[in-house]
Structure formats: structure tokens, C-alpha cells
Amino acid sequence: MVSITKRSASPVGLIGKPSPFHASVTLFAANTSSVNSNDAPTTDPSIMLRRSKRIKLEKNYDVDDVAIPKLESDGHDGPSPPRKRKARSNVVASSSSVKLEEVSPRRPKPIQQSLAVPHPAPLRWREAYDTIKRMRANIVAPVDTMGCDQAQLKEVDPKSQRFSTLVSLMLSSQTRDEVTDAAVGRLREGLGGSITVDAVLAADDTTISEAIAKVGFWRRKTQYIKQTAKRLRDDFDSDVPRTVDELCSLPGVGPKMAFLALQVAWKINVGIGVDVHVHRITNRLGWHKPPTKTPEETRLNLQSWLPTELHPEINHLLVGFGQTICLPVGPRCDECELSSGLCPSARKITKTAKIRKIAATSTTKGGPKVEITLEEQTEEKLFEPLADAPSPLSDIE
What we know:
Blueprint: E1 14-18, E2 26-30, H1 32-35, H2 45-61, H3 85-103, H4 125-136, H5 142-146, H6 158-172, H7 177-190, H8 197-202, H9 205-211, H10 218-235, H11 244-248, H12 255-266, H13 276-284, H14 295-305, H15 311-324, E3 347-363, E4 369-385
Antiparallel strand pairs: 1-2, 3-4
Helix pairs in contact: 4-15, 6-7, 6-12, 7-9, 13-15
């Protein structure tokens, strides 16, 4: 924009107007009334030039569309015409549409299936694995009788079997197997004897909530179950999907549930279901270098070196081991065969005996005074990390 310095008096044939852009600038335009008071066509070339430029400005930039005062040119290069507000609104509208597209629902990110660089197989892992398997053969853990694979046994229809397995997995998050199994039984009873997609959709939220009220986050899981049933009906013919990515697109379903659902419901083995037990125990065994921080890191490490045929069984094996021997707090290292050198996080157990003396006095009427001393021996267990072991990872949940 070119400004013209303010003058004390206007030339003949020009009229000054204050600039709408700056108070110290005056714009001059041809005063056609003084030049041509009789409304006769003017022959002054300068005035004709100014008028033609004014007309050209209006034609090219459509100043009428702009909500500012219309300016007349004085023949000099005046201020650049402002951008049309109509165009600006279009830009804003365009920006808004782009923004809406960015926040619109997108397909979930595919679940990572492998590491770019495989994790090396730990030393003596097979020996430790077989030792756990041998110990588990003599132990009946809660997961053996109340795990997610038990929910389908009371269903007849194959679709209901798969759906009840998925529901059991959804309820198991942050919940003990005993509580989950009881909740599945109450839900089946509340839905009329079978856990089906149609029965869940027909039931009100109160019916589902009352049945699962003892599991963790039951309010949220009530909504997840209803939303999942609707998705299955609309998108998957009322059946459980057959891929990890499709399962993880359902509300409340994560990778662990997806891999276990495929293994139990469809007998499809595409990965390892890693929960807190698998995450904790494999870190205690030193199978991850460095130690993993999340179950997903643990899963990718294990899948990179553990033989594929062991993927379906390792979750069930380690969950039961973690429920009975390798507890989150106070692991029973004195009962574990891995303490002999296969577990770097094992704690050395020292037993000490304490003898406590108890004195008692008895008197009888007219008889002698009798004093009795009893000795009671108690055993105390002291746990110490092995001298050559790294820091135990007992705090990993």
C-alpha cells in the first residue's frame, strides 16, 4: 500500500478523504462535481484515466463484497485491495472441514506382530520351562478350573461358545479368576440361560450390571459388553472376529484378550497372550535384556524366540504358576525348584529356630507350690537374594 503525505491544501479538481487504514494519511480522489458541474462528459485525460482505473479495480476485485468503505483511486498506486471476506470465510470453512476430517474416527493401528531385531533366546530357558511344566502338573490353580476356556463349556451353540469366551476375557481384566467365573455364571442366568449377542442386546444395563457387579470396573465393562454386542451384530454377523486387529477394534478388548480369544474360541495361534503373571515371571527369570516395562514389550520379545508351538500354552502355564508359587508379593521360593540356579531372582532361605520358655505356677489348697516351665520352638524364614543374582523384579505386577 502506497501512502500519500498529507498536504495543507487540496489541488484544484481533487478532494481529500481520510484514510480508513491510518489516521495520518489522506487519500485524494478526483472531484468530478467541480470539474464537470453541468454533468457534461469530461475530456480531461487524467480524470478519464483515474475513472478507468477505478472501474478496473471494482471489476477485478469485486470490492462490493468486502465490508469496508469503497475507495476511489487518485491515479497513483494506492493500497492493495484487501482480501475478500468471502474468500476468507471459504478458507475458514476449508480449514474447518480439514479439521473435522482429522478428528474423524480412524481405523485402529495394526497390532505389531514382530520385532525388527529378534530378541536372543535366554540361556537355559528350556530347562526352566520344563521345570515349571513339571511343577504345574502337580498343582491345580484357579485358572485350571475357572479360566476363560471354561466359559464355553456351558454353551451349546458355537457362536455362543465363542462369545461367552470373549465376555469372560473382558470381565477378567483386573479381576481374579474366582470372581470372573462367578460373574459369568450370574450373567448367563440373568440372560436366560445362555450368553448370546441377541440376549445381551435385549437386556437392560441393570441386568448386566447386577450380574457383574463384583468384577473390577464393572460399570465400564457393562457398557463395553453392550457396545461389543452391537458391533458383532452389525459388522460380524453376531460372531467373534477371526483377526487380532478386528478384535482389538472392539470396545474394551486389548491384545492379550485378542490373542487368547483366537486361541480358545477359534483355535488360531498367531501370538502370545501376555498378562501380569507372564510379564512378571519372565522378567524374574531374566528372559528379557533389558527388563521389559509393559506386557506388549514382553509379548514381542517372547514371540521372537519362543517356539511357535509353545505360544498357546505358555499363558495358561505361567498364570497358574504365578497364582500358586511365584506370587506377586512373597513368592514361595522355598517351594520352587527354580531356586536351585534357574531363577536369578530367587531368594535364599535361611531357617532359624527360636525357643521360648513359658513358666506357670500352680498352688493347691494346703498343698505345695508347683512351678512348670514349657519350651516352645518356632521356626522363622529369612529371605535373601542370591549373591550372584541381579536385583529381583518382585515389584513387577
